[in-house]
Amino acid sequence: MTQHALARMCGAIYLIVVGTGIFSLAYVPGQIMVAGDQLATLANIRENEALYRMGVAGLLLNQLAFFVLPLALFALLAQVDRGLAKVMVLSALAGIPLALVSAAERMVLLDLANAALPQETLVELATASRSSAGRAMLFATAFWGLWLLPFGYLVYRSGFLPRLLGIVLMLGCGGYLVNLFGLILMADYAQTAVAATLRWPATIGEIGICLWLLLLGARAGFRAT
Known about the structure:
By secondary structure, this protein is an all-alpha fold. The protein is 82% helix and 0% strand.
């Protein structure tokens, strides 16, 4: 496989990661989850069970694709710095178990939605399940951020991908980590303008590199001088 074809393949895998991530982590929760109201959330799950199940399946597909993505990127970028490419792969894969724990907790929430239990018990169990799912996903973001640092640097150094995207990806690492510690240390951090702003570098960088790889592949002429 040529370098250009390999880059396009990486872009196709990345598109699966991006698409399933938007669907399972943003769209489905936005349709079903009600902040602070477990009974309303459980009712939404019952009424939209097919969508909810698709969301869980989408998250599983997301993580399966995310398992393959850094391996494909390793084949593309190892020529730049093999050691750093290994760090990129390990950093990306480390977050997958936490995301799968979150997916499992979402299935527990589905069981609770269909369980014949007293209302008070349902509220307590649903609160615990949602909290567990949220915390697992929160800590997974540590690795979603960390892998962007070596990945961005490899893109920057590659010579066949835009240096600007490499810089934005590295900034995305910092955004993820600052937001993670902000959420841990400050109860109302999620509502701050800083939290919203720091999400953008990773979003722009990952969608940008995904589309570049998919549509343009690997092209010479971007090496630092």
